[in-house]
Amino acid sequence: MLLYLTLAGFLITLLVLINLRNSNKANIYLLFFLLINNIYALSHYATVYSHSKYFIAIMLIHFTPFYLLLGPFFYFYVRSLFIDDHRLSKKDYLHFLPALIILINIFPYIFKGVDYKLAYASKVIENTANFVNFDYLFIPAVINFIFRPIHALIYVAISIALIFKNRFNLKSNNMQQSLIYKWLLLLISISVVLYLSFLVFTIISYVTLDYNLAVNQASYILYLTIGGLIVLNFSLLFFPNILYGLPQLDYALKKQKKIINKEKEEDKRESKSFEISDEKLLLLKLKLDNYLVSRPYLKSNFNLTMMSTDTDIPVHHLSYYFNEQMNINFNTWKNDLKVNYVIELIKKGSYENLTLDALSKQAGFGSRSSFINAFKQKTGLTPSEYLQVVD
Question: pTM for the whole thing?
């Protein structure tokens, strides 16, 4: 079961990666967090259940530096949601230092030949407690394995403090903020269960010096871990809106200075919160209306990324605005504007000089079929039927 669960986890992280372009860039940290957790679980499966020396030789030691990235990625994800900015400062890279140290520490194993690694894996199969008996530079394996869950729990504690600090902003009537608040509570709870379970299981393993005996004695811990992984891996499938994060939607328009008052100092401080107010939504709408005056949607290659680049509005803000505020996906919105443009041309009599194909190309449709489908979806009629009604 653990193997299939981790494989499902890898598939879900792939889906997160595919949707990363249209979602909050903070999800890059969530992606790595999920990925490493599933690698962690796969390593456990390889050690206890696979009985494959090749699998053990690959999984057991090579990936240990990644496990010290779980905490930093977890913290970066939570922090990025609150500040709506995924970028790291120079100081943030210090969080990767423990992983780098462990990577250097296992150089003797990494650069050993295949025969050495297979011999090591064979010893692990004979007695799982032998997994600590590998060559390292300066940090004993025992400290390495016990430090991993402790390191992750420290970052979870820091993230809990961050959530507690911002809890009043999260608890609101806004559906997206309420969803993210519940998601963070769930994520914290699962992480505490996972890493406490790993810590207790690791301690029991060292006390008994028998990994298999520890599995039997701490079976309830493994069940908790598996349950946590199931919830962690599949929650995004049932609540995809989590990927939008907490868009602040806080924009100022150069051409709307007479409409919108300049922000005061207290307004600037308030803008750092993530309350999606009517005023902020109005700012975004005004900016988009101003952008649409030049009809950029008539370009055949017009897409969400181009729109983001032209307006300086992050893609995940635009996605959130269309899907959650306007209740329409971007492609439908774009095609509706194109169809409205064609209808405008038809009403002006342009169809008398241009064919329907020419009109569709002028509106930026890539093909005749996409034009007909979009037109019928918008008006309930095909272009030909619409022309008969107009006549």
Answer: 0.70
Mean pLDDT (the chain, rounded): 80
For the residues of 170-199, what is the DSSP string, one character each?
HSSS-HHHHHHHHHHHHHHHHHHHHHHHHH
Q: Quick count: other Cβ atoms within 10 Å of Cβ 331? A: 13
Domain residue ranges of the chain, discontinuous segments joined by +: 2-244, 247-327, 328-391
The distance of Cα 321 from the centroid of its chain, to the nearest Å, equals: 18
Measured in whole angstroms, how far is the alpha carbon of residue 156 from the centre of its chain? 18
Q: In which band, very low, low, confident or very high, does the pLDDT at 267 lie, cut at 50, 70 and 90?
A: very low
The CATH code belonging to domain 328-391 is 1.10.10.60
Tell me which DSSP letter residue 261 carries. P
90-106: per-residue pLDDT in tens?
999 999 999 999 999 99
Question: What are 388's two structure tokens?
Answer: 């008969």
Q: Select from 154, 130, 8, 14 the least CA-distant residue to 61.
A: 130
What integer pLDDT is reported at residue 168 of this predicted model? Answer: 64
The full 3-state SS of 215-253, as one line of letters, equals: HHHCHHHHHHHHHHHHHHHHHHHHCHHHHHCCCCCCCCC
For residues 211 and 202, give the distance between their C-alpha atoms in angstroms, rounded to a whole number.
Answer: 9
Determine contact, residues 253/286, Cβ cutoff 8 Å: yes
Residue pair 155/71 in contact (Cβ under 8 Å)? The answer is: yes
